[in-house]
Amino acid sequence: LSSELESALHSLCQLRIDLGFLIDPSFVVWPSTLGFLVQSIMVQPVFDAAVLSGRADIPSQFIWPEGDSPTPDAAEELHVPLIDIGGMLSGDPAAAAEVTRLVGEACERHGFFQVVNHGIDAELLADAHRCVDNFFTMPLPEKQRALRHPGESCGYASSFTGRFASKLPWKETLSFRSCPSDPALVVDYIVATLGEDHRRLGEVYARYCSEMSRLSLEIMEVLGESLGVGRAHYRRFFEGNDSIMRLNYYPPCQRPLETLGTGPHCDPTSLTILHQDNVGGLQVHTEGRWRSIRPRADAFVVNIGDTFMALSNGRYKSCLHRAVVNSRVPRKSLAFFLCPEMDKVVAPPGTLVDAANPRAYPDFTWRSLLDFTQKHYRADMKTLEVFSSWIVQQQQPQPART
Ligand SMILES: C=C1C[C@]23C[C@@]1(O)CC[C@H]2[C@]1(C)CCC[C@@](C)(C(=O)O)[C@H]1[C@@H]3C(=O)O
Ligand SMILES: O=C(O)CCC(=O)C(=O)O
Ligand SMILES: [Fe+2]
């Protein structure tokens, strides 16, 4: 490639389209010869929140169809049970029975509840939020040091430009793995991708994820109890978890009634423990309408994901939810997604399967479902149903190619 052409292409790729879409040179595949120039260039627009959050003339890829866009008036509130998890596990049997009943009822209906008296240190929680502000307000090139690679679930992503062609979520995310069996995993990942000057973010989230894992196992005890399979069953299943921590950052948007921070979906994971800041924006779809979960600084929002729905043989529901944005202030949420070890077989306990309750989903591994959402299918409200058909079809003997 002639040096003149290469430098011209570089200046093209450095071109910042006035809507804040940066043509990112790192995504340009430099062709070996001029002849393949057009086909070989894969140019990914990149969402520069610092530019777009002040603009009304946003790219059409961010505008969602009429049926998905937020209702003009603030959604009515969904009141979900507030579980005193600390008291429950160490309190008197009568209180524990009441909590078990409330959790079971909520999980059979919409899969959402909140936990308080969770034992997470308030200073650690405040640090975790401060880390999100510090990270996402950095210049784009610095955030892109941790750029998510196609097909992978970890890393920095900005509205998934390049991953999806339309209905782009109005958010930036930073996701990384957390495994209790590897206490250095979070710090090592953050320092390796973002650099030594971000070690403190790694240390804060290593502690945060360790606390999330502890809380997840306590919640698994409650879920086991409420399903009548005993406190130990699911706790044991998730002792060695391979979970995902995701930091969500939703910049202000000047067209908040036409865009979504996170589109309608059910979490493909097992259990989500989410702490939202005081801005509000999480909405759950139940009884035919979107309803908001009001933020509580002292509470974590907990919801059942697709994988746990399969582990409960469909008894507990993985429910449709989304995140709306606003035109005034950024919103952030810290989402810990509990996931089993990659190759553990996901199947319900025998006691939840009988003639009246046949198997709702085939056996699968979390690795296969995660792979499905990262490489083949954008998680939505029917991921588990589509995935189930997909894996059954994969197991059929493939017709010989003629
Ligand atoms: C396994 C996962 C896929 C998504 C992150 C998560 O860890 C759990 C939630 C999933 C997601 C948020 C559901 C909505 C669509 C999605 C593409 C997103 O908006 O971020 C999903 C995540 C993903 O990166 O695929
Ligand atoms: O930000 C929120 O409140 C919800 C985010 C969410 O549903 C997710 O990341 O799966
Ligand atoms: Fe979600």
TrEMBL record:
What does the UniProt keyword field contain?
A: Iron, Metal-binding, Oxidoreductase
- Which stretches make up the Fe2OG dioxygenase domain? 240-340
Listed under catalytic activity are: gibberellin A53 + 2 2-oxoglutarate + 3 O2 + H(+) = gibberellin A20 + 2 succinate + 3 CO2 + 2 H2O; gibberellin A12 + 2 2-oxoglutarate + 3 O2 + H(+) = gibberellin A9 + 2 succinate + 3 CO2 + 2 H2O
Q: Does the keyword Iron apply?
A: yes
| Cofactors | L-ascorbate; Fe cation
A GO biological process held by the record: gibberellin metabolic process
Q: Which GO terms describe its molecular function?
A: metal ion binding; oxidoreductase activity
Under which name does UniProt file this protein? Answer: Fe2OG dioxygenase domain-containing protein
